[in-house]
Batch of 2 targets.
Target 1
Amino acid sequence: MTPRRGKVRDIYEFDDRLLFVATDRISAFDHVLPVAIPDKGRVLTKISEFWFEKLEVPHHLLSMDLSELPLPEGTDVDVLDGRSMVVRKTNVVPIECVVRGYLAGSGWKEYQKSQTVCGLELPAGLVESSKLPEPIFTPATKEESGHDENISFERMCEIIGTELAERLRTLSLDIYRRGAEYALQHGIIIADTKFEFGQIGDELLLIDEVLTPDSSRFWPEDQYEAGKGQPSFDKQIVRDWLSETDWDKNSAPPSLPEEVVSRTRAQYIAAYERLSGQTFAWK
């Protein structure tokens, strides 16, 4: 049972099903760091499970019960428990479906140069972290290594066909709007996010993780102030600390201080607890 190992997730194959395991590994600047964030994988898995149940969109999640899979004898189930999803195997659509509701990150950088985001013209006078007049769909290619590449909607149509591209754009914008509206009612601004989809025949399914702090920018609504970068419920603490060191972002990354690890863990947990109204606890 050899996994396909990503930066922060391991995937095991069982005929027409997959086992998605969200590890506690954390990456930044395209490097997996030597220190993990305790319970990060379990928190992200609980957030995805929450959204799969709430959004009422066809998805790939079958069960959180590991006993449904023929795991090899001697498998340490305790390590997998709480961070694993049994999912349907799909033909993955090779596009990252990115939706942006606020002007941040690479979108803000592009806007400053050309008043566009991924080629889409926006109104003049916006500032960093401005709420956009309407959410925009800005697809990207899925890259095995390195950064995903932003592409135009027209290029997306060339890659996967116009009909599927239009379905994905409509569905992505709808999911984002509904998710962002719910999150805002619970004190979280979802500034942007990326969705992934898979197909089984003509059936289109939402896959992978959904509206988590690793696939989205989560900002605390009570601290939001346009015109600057925002605090966030994700690994921004890690990125900020690394940026203040002399690490060149090419060599092996340094180990994280315990204080940075602890604060990052607390941010992930806070995001889950605000969204779900439940207290995060693990045995």
Target 2
Amino acid sequence: MASNISLKTLATLFLALALFVQGTLGAITCEHLDRDKCAFAVSSSGKRCVLEKHVKRSGEEAYTCRASEIEADKLKDWIETDQCVKACGLDRTTLGISSDSLLESRFTEKLCSPPCYGSCPNVIDLYFNLAAGEGVFLPKLCESQEQNPRRAMSEMRSSGYVAPGPVKPVEFMMVAPAQAPY
């Protein structure tokens, strides 16, 4: 009888432990990711992970992964595959998140290629939002990249793919600049 109770207790304890481990293994926390998995990852809260470099007082470089303020659309617990990183022309040692790479025709060519654009939704979501922040519609950029890469870059630089501005004129109020505290 005593061994029967201990088997039930052990079974219950094992089940509880299994559920706890299952629940924690799937959770990605940016601050716990290694340098080689940080860039292009999305935490369990939906925040994009970014790799940052810090120089210590000794002059030694240290890298940390942290959650950015940028949220991924409909993605959580995601570490981008090596295949997507390669197909999209990305680098795992990328520091921060920037739209600057959209101005490079070689990068945009890889980003818009079928192996990247058609197979890597995390990367496309990231660059779609970065492009939108610059007033560029990524599908239109990719379409023109396919037709004439040089023209696509020149039009993007000259804001050729910018969304239309407001219909009504914007009114500005003059406000005195804030002074820094002494």
